[in-house]
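Hello,

Our lab assistant flagged a job as stuck in the queue for most of the afternoon. It eventually completed. Since we weren't sure the result was trustworthy after the delay, we are filing this so someone can double-check. Below is the sequence as submitted and the structure that was eventually returned. Let us know if re-running is recommended.
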Amino acid sequence: MRRRTLLAAAPLLFTPGLALAQNLDRAALQRVEAYFNGMTTLRARFLQIAQNGSAAEGTAMIWRPNRMRFEYDPPEPTLLIAADGQFFHWDRELRQPTVVAVNATPLGVLLRNPLSLSGDVTVPAMERVGGLLRVTVFRTAAPGEGRITLILEENPMQLRQWEVLDAQNRLTRVTLTRIETGIRFDPFLFAFNDPRFREELDRAR
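-- returned structure --
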């Protein structure tokens, strides 16, 4: 059975203590905005857990404002790259790509430049739990496409996890470990529109 990727993933399930929109901590949201808008690069190991319990691990690379790469460890055949406003999903077994617009996925909020938690992005809820800040967002114009909950340590602020909930009411949770920031990436890692990149994929199969 194929594991679901980061592109797939929940209407929001409200829990006791969850702050509604009119009670949002605006100062905390401004700190979240400043954190992401000040981020250049991030690399981390990730553990992805789907709603059905299936798990996958790999390496995540985020190069704000426009690029992202998720390399899944074998035997998972998936490679996921965001660049040029598109998400490129490559299945190494089928040798078949799927491309969708970054803005059509909840995960695309991580690449917004600048990230603003208002206007065309709605924050329906946030909460603090055990030193972590949970901020749920969705695109104001398309609430039915899904939403993402960003989970950050507050002091110092650092992204630790996110939960994506899709239009089919399915949940995917991604946890980051071994986080590094401010590192340099080779632009070729994100160049899925370059013919040389497809040749590299074929050789790696």
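-- support follow-up --
The delay was a queue issue, not a problem with the job. The result is valid. Residues 8-21 have pLDDT under 50 and may be disordered. The chain has one domain: 19-178.
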